[in-house]
Amino acid sequence: EVQLVESGGGLVQPxxxxxxxxxxxxxxxxxxxxxxxxxxxxxxxxxVSTIYKDYSTNYPDSMKGRFTISRDxxxxxxxxxxxxxxxxDTAVYYCxxxxxxxxxxxxxxxxxxxxxxx
Length: 118
Prior knowledge:
mainly beta
């Protein structure tokens, strides 16, 4: 059974940083592309970043600069580093199995909430 468990969210002030984690199990993580997505209140699901099995990455133009996706295949864990957090980053962040064409309709964790507020 595929399981994706996100952690690391919380309440932070603008300008601070966070590292989100996603523990993966039930599939071969090392050969799988993975995606981080987010959903703000009242908005749709938005892709944040994607990492492929060869460690190459892809970011939408709107996410370039402050977000860094990475993976540790030994730990079956996906990461998302977010720097210089902005109020507009407030959302539930999800990790998903899949890449550009598949993540939206595939397995996804329960999410971790990030709230950016002063």
